[in-house]
């Protein structure tokens, strides 16, 4: 059996062929070739025996006509034709194939047979296979974009970031891409839809991201974990170094069964999975909304999740509304975090800008100070609270209105950077002012959410990550590079 | 002690005075008079001894100059001046006063004394007091809008709806108004910010809404419940008739203390509250985001929460992505709902539009049928699933892209109305197509969310409400009117 190459030929191929490329816009094969021609910087070869050229690029009848020219092939042809295409790929010296077609092990006996045949080809030849039944992968640097969702000027629009995404469902990955990546909700290093995992699986992708210097944190949606032991090993290696948050679907019998039919994978016993993930420092979430929102927090590296200071889990709340303060305390405490007991010095300094009838405490209800001093007072209050040695993280609850233009972003940013403590912000009120506030805050690593739950999930993750990082640093000599 | 009038003079006053009206735009007294002049349909009287006119309307030095002319006064002057204003109000024959000023029982001894003085005036004279320390109330029909948040053309923009909102925090209420009501996120019948509850409290407001024919459902944020017994009585009366969902802040010691300082109210033992609320059929939530999203579901009356059919809690999922199906099953089961076991007939009919390699089951993964038949197939699949006697509610998980223009809204709407079953929808993908989809779906009572949690919370509430309604209907003779 030939030695198996790593994943570099997927993430950084020098040349790409698209087998099943077509000029028919309604078909997936069009989206793939469109994206490649539009954004890939090396040679692109459409393959389709019925065409001479597609999108102005010369088209080839078969991969066999491209001997030695193609490093990676993206394959989107009917399932029954895929084994033949893979044989062509082997013949042509292709190193890696992304199979986006469905109709394999997820659809019954005939598909299973085709799947086995592909696996056999891969094992015998060393050709690495990604998928099938997936949208493939995105790398922002160097740029490669295999999904069939058409994204014009992808290379310019998908700015390189530090977040890695893994999803075991093609449509979800496509949805995540459009809703969160293309829209600029967060920036990514890599996004991977791994599909049926005939060859490349979530463990290998995660190992790759664990070593990838451009990936600083990972969020993943997984239906099954093929090799639980190896997965936990890489998760443990990442703990305190690169945060990892996952949704592991299939907690109940019905969902485990659905996962099986969807990606032909077996889900393990949920109790065992839950315990093992926690032990390995993995954050487990339930809803995509939460996972993507935490991804946004992670994507702000080298912001607050690279914290040096925090030792504990003591939260200070700075709020413009007492009511939101009350609700946030409830959610902070439900999450197992504590409310910080502010130092005397902090209270004394805050009292200077608070009216006499309102002695400050945690939660810091900033409204009266704001009425008295104007919106600039946010900077003073945030400075004092961040400087407090008993505070590990701050949740900010401001109100969006036209005054947000005058929010002291620069002063706040300076303090956040200086103290290196976690800060997250809720936002409510006039939605017209959300975007500007969020943009300004993310510059210094503060994620902004419109639900309090996401604030608590993010700050909990930040603080948990920092504690693991600290305890790892004190336990062992500097980690050897792997 | 004089007989105390009900709340009609707040919700439907024939004339209004604004004490503390000012032409200075930065002040709250400006917002209030602006809104009144702009949108109130009866006579409006600004009161301010230092002005002759405000916004072109004649201004009066005192309420005493308006004897017999004012039904409701909105008061926004410094706390120490409020008792004098109330005495003027009594003299002038005012029936109801909304006090928006802060600085009363929530700020210490002097404030407490002022508060007691106001209470005394109210009790002796029969003048009803709303607040203090609040933004007052909104009624969409007849239109009255007391908050100091300026909303131009409020009467046109705030279309009458069936949802009642109660919030015990002024800023929150203001935020909810702007973010959810003014933006059209949902339509309301009434919104009430009750503040310190010196006289009018949450129980009386809830009683009013329970009887109000224009209010069909209520969502509330409460920090304290002054008269737990009376609150539970009205909640029980509403059960199965008008859904009621609340956030009751102050579950932990720290939050209970914060609630105390914020609205001068005592929170009860949380365990007792939790049990009693559940017994009374009240839905308790934790985050504002969830409460507002459930409010959206309720606001779609006479949609699915007026269900006649559902007897159980069996959910069918129709999804374009297997992965979202798996995650949704997990959340459905976590919420205590069941996955419906589809009837043979349903499976047989669905199989006709599904490819051979993909026999349908619940969750119904519609993607292959869609590939084969186009987006119109949603209507056929939804029709079959809604017709299934073992299905009580449907969660739809489609993908937003430009094809959404061709979604068979009319056919789907017809089936939803015909079957009278609960349906909710998630939406992910290209956010540009969210708005249109949501608008079309809400026409026939289907709320659309961008998180799955909100789908599950809404369908759970719909089904729970229907079950209570059915069991009440079978247990007793038609409810006497109260």
**What's the arrangement of strands in the largest beta sheet of chain A?**
9-8-11-10-12-13-14
Number of helices of chain A: 18
CATH architecture of the largest domain in chain A: 3-Layer(aba) Sandwich
What helical percentage do the residues of chain A reach? 40-55%
Task: Report the span from N to C terminus of chain A.
Answer: 25 Å
Summing up helix and strand content along with how strands pair, one would put the structural category of chain A as alpha/beta
**Rg of Cα set of chain A:** 25 Å
In what range is the share of β-strand residues of chain A?
Answer: 15-25%
- Write the CATH fold name of the largest domain in chain A: Rossmann fold
Largest interface: A-B, 68 and 68 residues
- Largest sheet: number of strands, sense, barrel closure of chain A: 7 strands, mixed
Chain oligomer state: homodimer
How confident overall, as mean pLDDT of chain A? 90
CATH superfamily membership of the largest domain in chain A, which one? Succinyl-CoA synthetase domains
Counting DSSP E segments of at least 2 residues, the number of strands of chain A comes to 22
Based on CA inertia axes, which overall geometry of chain A fits?
elongated
Q: Give the total of domains of chain A.
A: 2
List unreliable stretches of 5+ residues of chain A: none
What would your notes on this structure say?
Chain A has 18 helices and 22 strands. The first copy, chain A, has 482 residues and is of the alpha/beta class. In chain A, helix 3 (82-92) runs parallel beside helix 4 and helix 8 (228-238) packs parallel to helix 10 (270-279). The longest helix of chain A is centred in the C-terminal third of the chain and has 24 residues, at 452-475. Chain A is elongated. Chains A and B meet through helix 6, helix 9, helix 11, helix 12 and strand 21 of A and helix 6, helix 9, helix 11, helix 12 and strand 21 of B.
